[in-house]
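Handout, section B. The chain below has 339 residues.
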Amino acid sequence: AEGELIAGLDVVLESGKRIDAGLSLQSDGMSIKMKDGASVTGLKTHLDLEKGYRLGFDGKRVPKTPDKLPLSAAVMGVEVEGARTPSGGAGRFMDRLRRRYTAEHPLSFDRALVGLTAGQPPLAIQNAVMDIGLKGGLPGSEFFQADLLGGTVMGALGLAKDPTGFFLRTDIAFTGIDSRRMLPGGTVGVSRSEGEIGGELALRLPLTPRLAVFMSGLQLTVTLSPIGPRALERILYALDPYESNESIVAQRRLLRRGTPRWVKARIHNGALSLTGEVSVGGVRVAIPPIDRLNIENIGGLGRYEGFLAGMGPLIDLLEMLSAETLTVDENGTVQTARE
């Protein structure tokens, strides 16, 4: 690593009633190179985060006191429970707009090379900026932007929890993306214009060690416009490589006669639906829809089962981060609780 990174950690214990910790990372420019060849250049960070817990002993909890605004929320403008702005939705929109055009972000870098595998060029991510904060103790970004795959990606992402468990949520807009590197068959016989895509993506990704729970809880909506004809054809091929689904076969046949205008795919309750429109001889024609295709039938998903099975330690960490109270019993065992 080259460059300077100043890190600070503050811990304050309040008479056995509460503990607060603050983390600070400051750098005006660093370059980092990993052993596997991945690298980051021009890394800048001005990050301040704070997390606090009420304490309890022998099963007794300290009464809840009025919440103070966490430092991370104060710096980032992240909406937290009990700290909503009086201006409501309009105020939050203006905060997000202000962060979008501010000159300084808590995290930024000029260029990163990732995904270094034999026979494949690295993925270059450039001109990246990210706003980072905590909401309910869990990290997230209300705004990020980066240039990659010949285009630009912009959006928000974060971790959250509901009664079903933890999940990653993200909303992304992208334009000018060269999809040839992401699709089966790569660049063979596909021009840049034929493989270019743009559009929007909304994702809710469950964090669970169980594949069945993951499949049923996965929610994804993708709208692609524009989308090159070869890009769509290769997506359809990946969904049905053996041409066993009549709707997908009909869509691929229609693509040979026309040019796609837009496509919308949705995954909900373990099923995939897909609609869209192509232009054939100047006439708009709806593509044969796919309705509730079981995503478990899509080849290759089973290989993620082993990955999900190892997610237990991550879930334990998120339980700790999102907790509001730490209790210590007579044996010294620490347990977490949310109000």
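Note. Confidence is low (pLDDT under 50) at residues 66-89. Compare this with the example in section A.
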